[in-house]
Amino acid sequence: MTHYKGKGERITVPIWCAGATDGVHKVIVDTGIRDLEEYKKAEPGVSQTPAQITTAAIKRIMGWDPEEVEIVINTHLHCDHSGSNKEFKNAKFFVQKKEWEAAFNPLVPEAPFYDKLCYDKSAVNYFQWNFLEGDTEILPGLRVITTPGHTRGHQSAMFDTKDGVVCVSGDICNVAENVNGNLEPNIVVMVPETYESFQRIRQFAHYILPGHEPAIEDGSEKFIPVL
């Protein structure tokens, strides 16, 4: 999780999705894994309770059924962030065009993390997709910003809340220490861009929900300050 620090230290990391609403729209960022047994082929130590399945967690925490979700933002299309896309049949999906293209033509180091069954036409109808080219306002108080480095087309979601701007970072920051300590995450395909993305997050966000931060609690509305 922190490329230059803590080598050999074993930690248990979650796979986070986020739900948000302005009282009208129902939005989620990332959708978790597709199938537990399938994901074990890549990550043998993974575990998931029935309550942690993406659709069950959204119902438990947000009170929403899958068909109620209107907007899905994929920070990127790795299989632990797009795995349950198929469950949201009525949603509009937002992803960077560059990420979509990379997911179907991955570089050799990226290939194990892309699973086409998470985002191809069997999972998401083509007309549900909205392909973005750069920073974009999705709704008033909700924007995505490009944060390449972990993948070529990575983006992060920025929510304007009463307490300040919350960045749901995806995996440009696996843990808060990446951005606050200026430490690369464990998988990087673009090194200079990674550090530029950290700077963008520090520039815009007051708080962060990283993609795999152990200090965040299930269902919590408390996030980690960006220093």
Automatic annotation (TrEMBL):
Instruction: Write down the SUPFAM superfamilies for this protein, in alphabetical order.
Output: Metallo-hydrolase/oxidoreductase
Q: Which CDD domains match?
A: AHL_lactonase_MBL-fold
**Alphabetized GO MF terms:** hydrolase activity; metal ion binding
**What region holds the Metallo-beta-lactamase domain?**
14-212
Task: State the needed cofactors, names only.
Answer: Zn(2+)
Pfam families recorded: Lactamase_B
Q: What's in the keyword line of the UniProt record?
A: Hydrolase, Metal-binding, Zinc
- Could you tell me the superkingdom of the organism this chain comes from? Bacteria
Bilayer-crossing residues are: none
PANTHER family reported in the protein's UniProt record: METALLO-HYDROLASE RV2300C-RELATED (PTHR42978:SF7), QUORUM-QUENCHING LACTONASE YTNP-RELATED-RELATED (PTHR42978)
> What family does the Swiss-Prot or TrEMBL record give for this protein?
Belongs to the metallo-beta-lactamase superfamily.
- Specify the protein name: N-acyl homoserine lactonase family protein
Tell me what organism the protein belongs to.
Blautia obeum
Q: What is the lineage of its organism?
A: Bacteria, Bacillati, Bacillota, Clostridia, Lachnospirales
